[in-house]
Amino acid sequence: MAPPSQSYKSPSPSQPSGKGEVSDLKLQLRQLAGSRAPGTDDSKRDLFKKVISYMTVGIDVSSLFSEMVMCSATSDIVLKKMCYLYVGNYAKGNPDLALLTINFLQKDCRDEDPMIRGLALRSLCSLRVANLVEYLVGPLGSGLKDSSGYVRMVAAVGALKLYHISAATCVDADFPSMLKSLMLHDSDSQVVANCLSALQEIWSLEASSSEEASKEREALLSKPVIYYLLNRFKDFNEWAQCLVLDLVSKYVPSDSSDIFDIMNLLEDRLQHANGAVVLATVKVFLHMTLSMTDVHQQVYERIKAPLLTLVSSGSQEQSYAVLSHLHLLVMRAPMLFSSDYKHFYCQYNEPSHVKKLKLDMLTAVANENNTYEIVTELCEYVANVDVAIARESVRAVGKIALQQYDVNAIVDRLLQFLEMEKGYVTAEALVLVKDLLRKYPQWSQDCIAVVGNISSRNVQEPKAKAALIWMLGEYCQDMNDAPYVLENLIENWDDEHSAEVRLHLLTAVLKCFLKRPPETQKALGAALAAGLSDSHQDVHDRALLYYRLLQYNVSVADRVVNPPKQAVSVFTDTQNSEIKDRIFDEFNSLSVVYQKPSYMFTDKEHRGPFEFSEETGGLSVGVESVENIAQIVDANDKDLLLGTSEEEESRGTSSDGSAYSAPAYDSASISLTSSHAQSEPVISNPSLPTYSAQTSLAIDDLLGLSLSSSTTSVPPPPPLKLNAKAVIDPGTFQRKWGQLPIALTQECSISPQGAAALNSPQVLLQHMQGQSIHCIASGGKAPNFKFFFFAQNAEASASFFLVECIINTSSSKAQIKVKADDQSTADAFWNLFQLALTRFGSP
Amino acid sequence: MISQFFVLSLRGDNIVFRDYRGDVPKGSAEIFFRKVKFWKEDEEEEAPPNVDGVNYFHVKVAGLLFVATTRVNSSPSLVLELLQRIARVIKDYLGVLNEDSLRKNFVLVYELLDEVIDFGYVQTTSTELLKSYVFNEPIVVDAARLPPLGPAGMFMQGTKRMPATAVTKSVVANEPGGRRREEIFVDIIEKISVTFSSSGYILTSEIDGTIQMKSYLSGNPEIRLALNEELSIGRGGRSIYDYSSSAGAGVVILDDCNFHESVHLDSFDVDRTLSLVPPDGEFPVMNYRMTQEFKPPFIITAVIEEAGTFRAEVILKVRADFSSNITANTVAIQMPLPKYTTRVSFEQEPGAVGQTTDFKEANKKLEWNLRKAWFFQNF
After folding, report:
1. How many CA within 13 A on the CB side of residue A6?
2. Which of A43, A520, A669, B128 has the maximum number of C-beta atoms within 10 A of its C-beta?
3. ipTM of this model?
4. How far is CA A189 from the centre of its chain?
5. Which positions in chain B touch A598 (Cβ < 8 Å)?
6. Is domain B188-290 classified as CATH 2.60.40.1170?
7. Residue-level pLDDT at A578
8. B237 interfaces chain A, CB cutoff of 8 Å
9. How close does chain B come to A271, measured CA to CA in Å?
10. Fold of the domain spanning A15-233
11. DSSP A712
């Protein structure tokens, strides 16, 4: 989709791509390198600028390395900075050349000006060249003891950089403990902050290998350290405050006065203009009070207003981030936000992901008092030009309806949606009306009246169509034309691409038939016939199941498809509460925005510090608090009916079907060449096909649809009886096929009707199975099909017949190879097989 | 903690690129830009994206994308706030923030970035503090030519503002003549959202406001900012839990507000005065939010009549509800039209001056711009 990046680039004059310019620069730099003339610095500046601009746009200027280093002997600080930047960028790729820079960087580290010392030290540590670490230790050590705060600040981060280049060097030089003492004693707050971040990173990386380090890491969370940092809190700048707050949020307070002290100290942070500070504070408050339910609630009340302010100030992106956090809180405790619902109203110019979150929240906070207004507002959104939002809004209305507040008014609204004559609105509304009816069957009269007026031709989306069909089946007694609508739909069976719709159609037409037999008989016959020849396995199986059910006993069929139903009281929640708690634990992080816990999107080594200790329980948030969360979430789950399980109905019936153990061939997965191997898992399935010969009804029978099972024509028992429940595992089949000689090779023709019906291998398989000839593998596409059949002599269980059958449907010819354990019965078997095959498709 | 920072133009060029930790592959800018391109087509924007374990944060400022990448699960508001701050610091230095000024001053920008972030950790974003570490002189770009980032950068979506030209001055550049002018700019920006029902009844109303300050004062004097004494925060006095109480006339009730860190609130509770030592550069002194009932400055009524099968007539009326000696500048009215709209003709009230009307084919929007608006106007 995207052309190479070059094509985005403007042909601006500052972006040459040729090598010519680079070698030009090289020459000019050389000339300037030795020059002492006045004004050199200015021309150097221009050249350096050019080099850096090339570097930015991605042109490789690393060939200038030595020239740049030669030019760097200057006292001009701007030049120095540009040179450092260049060196930092290319040193990693040119470790040998990087050695050249060490000298002047080390010299600069001893400069009088603290600024230059700091800069040089920062660049020195940023070289990222492993074999130069020995040169780092000295300057870093003196940097950490420097008199200037700026240099110490740089050195603290420098120690961390060193750790990343060579952990051993850093630890051996005892930098961690130096950092620790700096952190606890330095007068400069930024030095303290940098030491803290460096130590956090170093110790959590070390913790896995060294016990001492993990102790040190725990020590960061000890009361003295936390109190020390909190006492200096006002000195820190806002970013360092975030860092400290993050640490505090992991601190386990010793008692409740501890908690209140900390919260009192931090309360004014909630009024900070920086959203990061506010959210970090909120996290501290939330996590500290987890074990105190009432205080926890008060915290919610307290943080509400600041968060709402943050949402409305700041850039779009920031407000989305805050809104996601608010969303999380609303979902945890919807009742606490129920009076603030107006804040979650969407504005027309908000981007749709923001609207989606807001719709979610509106749905969650709905209760007896505000439902009417919320639903009114949502109905406005349904007319939104943004289709996705309009859909979401319909769904939101439906969800609220399922929450049991003021269903009366909502049902009316939903029914209005059905009449809005906008395809997507109707579609969403249909799905919801279906769910609604499953929960509140008492509304069926009103709903059915409206649903009956919807033309099925106007409904295209599979889900909506399935919902409509479900309702047609379920309430066919109340809808006069239900059988005829279904009949129409069945006529267009082949145009229906969604298997879900076809499954629903089968069920619905059967339900309808059981209630209104005379009107639906024809439709049912057509549906079962179409279902049996359907290429989708589930559809086919369900059709077969229904067919056999009907054949077995109509009243049983009635019990299966029309059991007395209980209204669904709770729809399953989509996201389990464990994940929700995980996300809550990771408050104020990306987890909240993505709505998934961090282990799902970050690599292990990049998880934040302390992540592991939380897992091992070394830093438990308190057992009682976990229970507390569970309670809250439980309570939420009861109120919130998020998510609706679409297929509950169909799952019920299909699990009934599994008792009949439908054959599980999948033509797509079995290719001609590797048929044996691939079919293995299918055949070795313990629930093997167990069809009796009796059920072998030719398809023509179905079309006539004689319902009483007595009319079934059973073929006369052949002289050779085959075991209807023959079993062979593919390995054995393969071995036998290899060992046995070919008993016969024959060619025979199949009936033209049969050839025509053979549009997929399954059709023949059913037919042959009816004759106790089972298939072990099949494959191919029209016009060429290949089958491996087997059969077992009912009298002699060790006697198997193996068949390879290649059918060409265009010439209606079949080539057959038969192998048999008992050669004497091969001819008898051939007769049977041929009979079975020729009968295929004949009326 | 962030791994990389870069600024992309809307065409996808890297204007500035800085790698802090070296743990994110080089092509990240391009990966990100492809994503953005993709959204633009779908009009579906999901922020922030995550590709191969790399999280991309971005903010859009003055037509530029400020992007940060990280591999850790960091706080989104922290990173976004940081990006916003970086943009502000750069603007403080350059005076004008746009592609052109960035390209001309990228060395200065690198210098700033070096001090703002070290190894992915934020050091400082205070223009004031940075001054002592930054040595490049800004190259001033002509501001008039390009739409600058107004102090209303926070409300960039859909609003066009005309900031005073003086505010586009760099905090470090000297006036021609060598003498610095002692100036301070205080802007009050309010975003008012009102929803009317079709019968003219106000459904929701909200004001989000901010007091922005940009100081060019030397010597950092303390400044006192007195607000309306009748101001109260949180409904019903100090209690924000009580939503039922109402206040008398003249009382301004803020639902909530927050303050910049330089603001001292010692006397705020007594006489509603903020005292602060303004740092250099632009910053919001205070953000506030109120849902108290107020008289909206404009009332818009729309009457739609179907005039035939393929024609509809819309009569838009705007009434300005403030005293006649105040005029509103640059009023723009937009109205989304159905997708299948092909042509729009306009008819203005006779005697209308300084008004333009336009139909934006691409996003099917009708625009009506008024340079000045005062009492009662019809369309």
Report:
1. 3
2. A520
3. 0.82
4. 43
5. 73
6. yes
7. 78
8. no
9. 4
10. Leucine-rich Repeat Variant (1.25.10)
11. P
Single-letter residue type at A794: A
Note the residue count of chain A: 843
pTM, rounded to two decimals: 0.71
Distance CA(A38)–CA(A202), nearest Å, equals 48
Confidence of residue A148 (pLDDT cuts 50, 70, 90): very high
**Residue that the structure tokens 């089958």 belong to:** A787
**Any idea what DSSP says for residue A793?**
B
Q: What is the DSSP string of B260-310?
A: -TTEE-TTHHHH-EEEE-PPSEEEEEEEEEE------SEEEEEEEEE-STT
Task: Write out A557-621 in H/E/C secondary structure.
Answer: HHHHHCCCCCCCCCCCCCCCHHHHHHHHHCCCCHHHHHCCCHHHCCCHHHCCCCHHHHHHCCCCC
Strands (E), B29-155: 50-51, 54-61, 64-70, 117-118, 121-122
Q: Where in chain B is the domain with CATH 2.60.40.1170?
A: 188-290, 298-378
What whole-number distance in Å separates Cα of residue A556 and Cα of residue A286?
57
In sequence order, which residues have a C-beta less than 8 Å from that of residue A553 and are 6 or more positions away?
Answer: none
Cis peptide before A351 (omega within 30 of 0): no
Pick the residue from chain B with its C-alpha nearest to A50.
B107
Residue A654 parent element (H or E): helix A648-658
Residues of chain B in contact with residue A602, where contact means CB-CB under 8 angstroms, are: 53, 71-73
User: ∠A339-A259-A234 over CA atoms, to 5°?
Assistant: 95
Is A32 within 8 Å of A40 (Cβ atoms)? yes
Q: Which CATH class is domain A667-839?
A: alpha beta
What is the tens place of the pLDDT at every residue in A651-691? 333 333 333 333 334 333 333 333 343 333 333 334 434 34
Burial category of A582 from C-beta neighbours within 10 Å (exposed 0-12, middle 13-18, buried 19 and up): middle
Q: Is B50 touching A (CB cutoff 8 A)?
A: yes
Q: Does B171 touch chain A (CB under 8 A)?
A: no
**Residue A245 pLDDT exceeds 90:** yes
Going by their DSSP bridges, the two strands B252-254 and B231-233 should be labelled as parallel
B128–chain A Cβ distance below 8 A for any pair: no
Would you call A525 helix, strand, or coil by DSSP? helix
Give B167 to chain A, closest Cα distance, Å. Answer: 20
Main-chain dihedrals φ then ψ at residue A36, nearest 5 degrees: -115, 5
Give percent of chain A above pLDDT 70: 79
Q: Lowest-confidence range among A577-586, A642-651, B357-366?
A: A642-651
- A vs B, Cβ pairs < 8 A, gives 247
Identify the closest residue of chain B to A601 by CA–CA distance. Answer: B53
Residue A43 CA to residue A33 CA, distance in Å, equals 11
Q: CA of A538 to nearest chain B CA: how many angstroms apart?
A: 35
Q: Which of B195, B256, B259 sits opposite A273 (nearest CB)?
A: B259
CA distance A806 to A213: 71
CB contact (8 A) between residue B76 and residue A589: yes
Residue A75 pLDDT greater than 80, yes or no: no
Contacts of B111 in chain A (CB under 8 A): 78, 81
Contact B240, B256 (CB under 8 A): yes
B4-130: CATH topology: Beta-Lactamase (3.30.450)
According to DSSP, residue A820 is labeled: E
CB-based contact A705:A529 (threshold 8 Å): no
- Judge: A589–B124 Cβ closer than 8 Å, yes or no: no
**Cis status of the peptide bond prior to B48, with omega within 30 of 0:** yes
B298-378: CATH topology is: Immunoglobulin-like (2.60.40)
Instruction: Kindly give the residue spans of alpha helices, DSSP state H, lying in A758-825.
Output: 761-770
Task: Give me the residue spans of the domains in chain A.
Answer: 15-233, 455-567+646-662, 577-639, 667-839
